[in-house]
Amino acid sequence: MIVTDTNVIGYLFLSSDKSRLSELALRKDSEWAAPVLWRSELRNVLASYMRKAILALHEAHQIMDRALALMRGREFEVSSGEIFKLVSVSKCSAYDCEFIAVAMELGVPLVTVDKQLLREFPDSTLSLDAYCR
Q1: What is the pLDDT of residues 4-36, one digit of tens each?
Q2: 20 to 30 A from 117, CA-CA: which of 37, 41, 52, 103?
Q3: Residue 111 has what pLDDT?
């Protein structure tokens, strides 16, 4: 099992230069976990794509349904206390600290492309590139 951030999840369903790596990561370990927050973040990305006319409404629904199926049973609530502890020792947002908290709780790495998370929490993160090597 690995924890993945919303970007890595999104790369599976939205074409980008990182899509291939995200697919490789899924083949390497198909048990992805994340804080429940990932849902709102992905919805926001999909909304942005809809506003730019990159995705139609029905496509956004399909992507969200597929992403929900992928993550089913591996979404976690995180206590505010844990988030605030991580915020207090880093420059990361509370949003980003939710992903770190889940990784720490599960004792698995957070696979991410977020440079700040990689820099601030090197013992709990792996870059998507490094994970796929």
Answers
A1: 999 999 999 999 999 999 999 999 999 999 999
A2: 52
A3: 98
Name the percent of the chain in helix, strand, coil, to the closest 5.
60, 10, 30
Give me 8's structure tokens: 């890595």
3-state secondary structure of 125: strand
Q: Domain residue spans in the chain?
A: 2-132
Q: pLDDT by residue (tens digit) across 60-85?
A: 999 999 999 999 999 999 999 999 99
What kind of fold does domain 2-132 have according to CATH? Rossmann fold (3.40.50)
What does the alpha-carbon distance between residue 120 and residue 125 come to, in Å, rounded to a whole number?
Answer: 9
Cβ proximity of 112 and 98 under 8 Å: no
Length of the chain: 133
pLDDT, position 121: 98
Helix 57-71 to helix 6-13 angle (10° resolution) is: 120
Contacts of 51 (CB under 8 A, 6+ apart): none
